[in-house]
Known about the structure:
Strand 8 and strand 9 form a beta hairpin. Helix 2 crosses helix 3, helix 7 runs antiparallel to helix 14 (about 400-415) and helix 17 runs antiparallel to helix 18. This protein folds into 4 domains: about 5-160, 3-Layer(aba) Sandwich (Alpha-D-Glucose-1,6-Bisphosphate, Chain A, domain 3), CATH 3.40.120.10; about 185-300, Alpha-D-Glucose-1,6-Bisphosphate, subunit A, domain 3 (Alpha-D-Glucose-1,6-Bisphosphate, Chain A, domain 3), CATH 3.40.120; about 305-425, Alpha-D-Glucose-1,6-Bisphosphate, Chain A, domain 3 (3-Layer(aba) Sandwich); about 455-530, 2-Layer Sandwich (TATA-Binding Protein). It has 18 helices and 19 strands. The strands form 5 sheets. Strands 1-3-2-4-5 form a 5-stranded mixed sheet, sandwiched between helices. The chain is about 40% helix and about 20% strand. The chain is an alpha/beta fold. It binds 2-acetamido-2-deoxy-6-O-phosphono-alpha-D-glucopyranose and zinc ion. 2-acetamido-2-deoxy-6-O-phosphono-alpha-D-glucopyranose (16G) binds near residues 27, 376, 380 and 510. InterPro entries: A-D-PHexomutase_a/b/a-I (IPR005844), A-D-PHexomutase_a/b/a-I/II/III (IPR016055), A-D-PHexomutase_C (IPR005843), A-D-PHexomutase_C_sf (IPR036900), A-D-PHexomutase_CS (IPR016066), AMG1_II (IPR049023), AMG1_III (IPR049022), PAGM (IPR016657). Belongs to the phosphohexose mutase family.
Amino acid sequence: SLAVDRIRSLSDQHPKPSNIHFQYGTAGFRTLGSILDSVMFRVGILAALRSKKLDGKTIGVMVTASHNPEPDNGVKLVDPRGEMLESAWEVHATVLANAPTTDAFIEALDTFVRTLKIDLSKPAKVVYARDTRPSGPALISAIEDGINAMDAEGRDAGVTSTPVLHYLVRAINTKGTKDEYGEDSEEGYLRKLTVAFKKLVAGKPAPPPLLIDCANGVGAQVAHKLAEHLGDAVRLIPVNTATTTPGALNNSCGADFVKTSQKLPPSLNSQLTAGQRGCSLDGDADRLIYYYMDSRNQFHMLDGDKIAALVAAFIVDLTKAAGLDDQIKVGIVQTAYANGGSTKYLSERLPVKCVPTGVKHLHHAAEKYDVGVYFEANGHGTVLFSPESLEKLSSYEPSTPAQSTALNHIINLTQLINQTVGDGLSDMLLVEVVLSHKSYSGEEWDSSYVDLPNRLVKVVVADRNIFRTEDAERRLISPPGIQAKIDELVRRYEGGRSFVRPSGTEDVVRVYAEAMNRTQADELAFRVAGLIY
Ligand code: 16G
Ligand code: ZN
């Protein structure tokens, strides 16, 4: 049974602030770091219980608020294969986090254990990590109290990126099995990626040095180590690496800044020269946005949609070259935020599915393809190879040297790509591989299709929960009547498209619009916003 006395005395040290409702949303719990202490303690307990429920498999806990401002923090749980926590447990997490007192919490725990028939005699293992936020260490110690309250085994993975933590969870749980994912350490991760990368670019001319904007976050630390492992294979130049400067994190830099403002971070202005390319990570290094300066010193952004198009085309080419194209089919997963230009371009070539925002939706949809390429426009994404495809790759006998080369490339890609979750650095190496194989500059990559001008607007409303959507968030079903008005507005704009959805991470409603030119996209966005005030 539960060690009630121990839980009680530890829980009393982590009281829930009154008048605050916590919610496990698309990205876990996320709010001001200063009010998350009780949530972290309870998440430690929940992680241990999830581990017991899954027969002692290791569960991951990541403390980060990604691209949000420095005072924010957050926490999310990672399931045994390195994927996001199963949705049903998001509700349990929310219930436990909101029990007002220690007594109420213990009662909720007890009910939870009985309803889910969790066998408390099973072992429990939890691995946890944090990003560079100043609130991180205290929040980690609250998680440790939760783990100790359950007498579970904790492993501190220190300060590292979100994708490394996801990798670790999968590596730990597959250790010694035939599905072994890699050595269960950050070093093991770096080695796995860089060994695959070096094989993929062997014999190719070294690409020009690559600027990486690390958003002054944990990506800086991982990028530095990655650069050492890569040596001359590609020279990385990490910038915005001030992880200890107060207020610097995600401030006018990083992938979210670039995507949202469609601008180069001012700190890179003098560094990115004509013809050069660079990229930005977000605060926990799970997102990636590329860009380049053209010969007239114009900035061009290459977002998640452009990455998906580049990578998917490359994998299709390789399956053809290997003679596997009728056995291994590539499919794409996007969200409503994917630029209409990309959706048109991709759906003329490959199956494309649209799903609601949030990595777990994309991930699950991508699992249904032989090779599923999923990217959010904001730069979060990866490529999944199904177990059957991996099997085919390992048993396939190529009939020509050219087929054999292509097959080896695909196999190396399965090692280079972090298949647990979107991974800014792994995706960056993937992009570099494709550019190197195709001898593409940023400009050539960009030319596959033209982005439609678009505009994203935030609207603060009294209650965002009254906004409900259908059709992968592309249509509003509530409040009634608004969708018809949106449709009517959209019809007046050439190439117009617009949708409204409640944010899963902020107390706002988002409006997206695109049209044939900048002015029209802006106008459509603001007129649709006007409908929902
Ligand atoms: C979270 C999601 C991200 C999504 C974003 C949308 C994960 C790990 N992260 O950051 O994929 O794009 O939320 O935010 O799922 P919004 O709901 O506020 O628009
Ligand atoms: Zn992130």
